[in-house]
Amino acid sequence: MYHPPVLKNRRTLLERSEKFISDTYFTDCNLRGRLYGDTHQLTSLSVFQTAKRISYSEAVQQNFQPCKVGDAFGSTWWTCWFKVVLKIPEAWRGKEVHLRWESDGEGMLWRDEQPVQGLTKEGEKTSYILSECLKQNEPHSITLYVELACNGLFGAGQGSFIAAPDPNRKYTLQKAELVVFNRDVQELLTDFEMLVDIVKMLGEEDQRGYQALFTANEMVNLCDPTDPDSFSSARSLAQKFFRQRNGQSQHIVHAMGHCHIDSAWLWPYEETIRKCARSWVTVVRLMEKNPEFIFTCSQAQQFQWVKNWYPGLFSRIQYFVQKGQFIPVGGTWVEMDGNLPSGESMVRQFLEGQNFFKAEFGQYCKEFWLPDTFGYSAQLPQIMQGAGIDRFLTQKLSWNLVNTFPHNTFFWEGIDGSQVLTHFPPGNSYEMKGKIEDLIKTVKHNKDKGRANHSAVLFGFGDGGGGPTQLMLDRLQRVQDSDGLPRVNMSTPDRLFSELQAESGLLCTWSGELFLELHNGTYTTQAKIKLGNRRCEALLHDVEVGSCLALSQNVGFSYPTKQLQELWRLLLLNQFHDVIPGSCIEMVVEDALEYYKEIQKTGSRLLLSACHALRSTPWMEVGSGTAVLNTLSWDRTEVIALSEEGAQSRLALVKVPCVGVASLTDLAGSVSKVTVTVQADGTVRMENGLLQAVLDRMGHLVSLLLVQTNREAISDGCFGNQFVLFDDVPLYWDAWDVMDYHLQTRKPVVDVIKPVQVLSSGGLRGSVTFSLRISAKSSITQEVILDANCPYIKFSTQVDWAEAHKFLKVEFPVQVRSSNATYEIQFGHLQRPTHRNTSWDWVRFEVWGHKWADVSEHGFGVALLNDCKYGYSVHQNIMTLSLLRAPKAPDANADMGHHEFTYAVMPHAGSFQEASVIQHAYNLNFPLRLIPDMNNIRPWSMFTVSSAAVILETIKQAEGKNNSLVVRLFESHGSSVLAVLSTPFPVKEAWHCDLLEQPNYSRPAEVNDSKVSLTFRPFQIISLLLRIF
Ligand SMILES: [Zn+2]
């Protein structure tokens, strides 16, 4: 056909094509206006509304009331069950027939008692295909149900999506009808859309963009929207363009469907169960139609939910896992926070996760998958390796506020030297749409051009949007190998990483933590969740140690395998990356605290029954005495309270051997007593022979002397234990972010309610108390405690907190000069600068650590310990612990109310390693436990470790092996050492094993009678499978 040549006006041609497919302009005559044909009303529509999440079988028995399009339902968190009765007109034979459903809220369509598809407008899922080509023998009269959750994809935030939910929102049904769908129009629209996007994305400097422009323009010329017979010639032109191939060097995109589902966030855990079902049933449906479609899916917990609640769907998923289309990834129980869980918690994330994947799908995951977490511990590479994983995918560091992370594909090296191949999808998203823009960005932003020629493109709506759509698949299918665009393979994580590994010679290495320069308030927000996590980690540790002691002494003892697994799984669930960070709504906080309560209740009962089981041993018997349990791997001599009243007479100084028990014998006579003296100037001096502390009337620590070296720890003229309040208004992410500028708003807390007074004047414990006013609504009461024989001074703190957008911290300016501070992390520690030389340094104005942080110069240092906090900063010589925040979104009541926590300061001679700072921080977090009603005990240890550098972290029954224990040790000093693990039992068998407890049969442990010799590299974790009874 002859046309006059087009003029040189790129804009008119481009806009002509855009208008031809616009859903806003010219729909009366353009192609988009032809997408749908005739419509037909439903036969009937009725609804049953309930405040509960009920099952299908319960729902269908309810009384349904007539309703219509345009009606509003809800309120928020309700569920509407719609009964949809329809009859497809006979005249539509040969046509593709859809049920079109548009509503607020998240819908699940049920047919023949089974969930069949998600219907969520925000996830572009508003159509259910009733027939692809209506035949006479197909059912025309059909009854369906739509289960509609009254919440959006991102909950129900009032005003802004992260604001606290609006409980009174209504949810409207906008469309419910039958419609003829013109598939040929859709195909052509997709061709046009891709060409238009190529024109726009490649820009005016690229000749390929002009080829796309002229192709699209000629297609408009050829295509008459009213005449479907004209479509094929237009489509041929598009296909000719898409089939023009690349050369061999083009970048390769590994496209994988994905649906990031937060296990709880702006909605409660219970809703996530339905989000998973809605999303995955949609994915399975897409797989049935598109055998090449691949979907990656993480979080064992979510699979477990679907298995429990949607068994039919779960078996379909199992089928597609076997086919290699539905790919479980990640290997963990949930996508946990990457900073706050303890080392052992991280191990259990993998242990529970990998065991689940192996049991249900026959395979372990090969990749750790954590796209959305707020930073990544430098111990993760070793933990991954131990769980059989040496590949890692995330992209969250693209959110860095200041510094651009320099790599997309690299080796990540942990504190012990373990390396994992790591990939950040260069498109900086895990919710792509298969559009040209996604492909171009992926190539353009790849910071390892020439080093890594493969990248991931993860496409699909997350958080209940139901993952990928047919349209996304159709887009990607068109440009598998189209000149000027990256090659697109529907791929798997395994193929991506294998390709990257094969060509890894030029890749760089990043050593140490992956610190996210954002969301640093999440180390502090929702203090009760942090407290619950720390307490429950300690309790489950103690239950396991106690149960193993019982097991070793009493063959009749039944190790609580099942209960412990249930409790661990609850704890692991709460470590999800919007729960433990505190970035969730109030409903989630309530659930999380309830789970902690359950762990505390059941865990305490299990610990008690383990201790009681010890009573039937010959060397322990029931009686009226008291024994003391020490679950840590060093001997401890400490003051313990025998009753809750805290009165002087109810204290005792006890000595308990490592991993063992002893009778309660008060050794008070053997150590120097604590004295507390009110001095002439009103200050109070507390001494215990190790430390001498002076507090002023406001509770400031004006002096802290290390007696042994006569060294002052507090900086001249400064106050330790100085509470400070900051304005805390971030740019947007309220619960998440604390911004650098908050530091400029520092205000010391100076208003005394009750000046220092002596509470306990000495003996085994000296203590003073005081109260300060933070504001008209908030106050602090503190008891400062010095125990006999204790190298640290404790600050037992109560805060009544009713602030808005304030941040409470406590400061200790110390007489130490060091360019680095040290922070405890999982199974080790790392250093961060105390100066602000570069942007990489100053952006670490708020950092995370676990039980302790330390700043030391040669020969002397000060450690700051805590029992439930995670936020720290050390700037120059000022050590700061972050205590409480008061964000208002997404939980309007976050952190309001009463808080109790303890921190401690420990000045020390020598290095923190030599001073046993690590052990003392453990002691603060793992109190000695009293066992009532026991007599006749000689002190007894189940295990001893010869090296002070090596910590025996975990003792548990081996998974699935009743006669074996797993013991896990790690090197904590950062040194290479030899250590001997001893036990009174003859060791029958000892194997090195991985974190999944799989023995390495080529590596028996070196055993000599009841001693196991071990060689450690710095920060190495060693797990042993032991048979000792
Ligand atoms: Zn997330």
Number of DSSP helical runs:
18
User: What is the CA-atom radius of gyration, in angstroms?
Assistant: 32 Å
The main β sheet shows up as: 14 strands, antiparallel
Per DSSP, what share of the residues sits in E-state strands of 2 or more residues? 25-35%
Number of strands: 56
Structure description:
- There is one protein chain.
- The protein has 1029 residues and is of the alpha+beta class.
- It is built from 18 helices and 56 strands.
- The protein has a 14-stranded antiparallel beta sheet with strand order 30-29-28-27-26-33-34-35-36-45-42-41-38-39. Strands 3-2-5-10-7-8 form a six-stranded antiparallel beta sheet. The protein has a six-stranded antiparallel beta sheet with strand order 32-31-37-44-43-40, with no helix packed on it.
- Strand 12, helix 6 (269-289) and strand 13 form a beta-alpha-beta unit.
- Helix 3 (183-202) packs across helix 12.
- The radius of gyration is 32 Å and the shape is elongated.
- The mean pLDDT is 96.
- The structure holds zinc ion.
- Residues 260, 262, 372, 577 line the site of zinc ion.
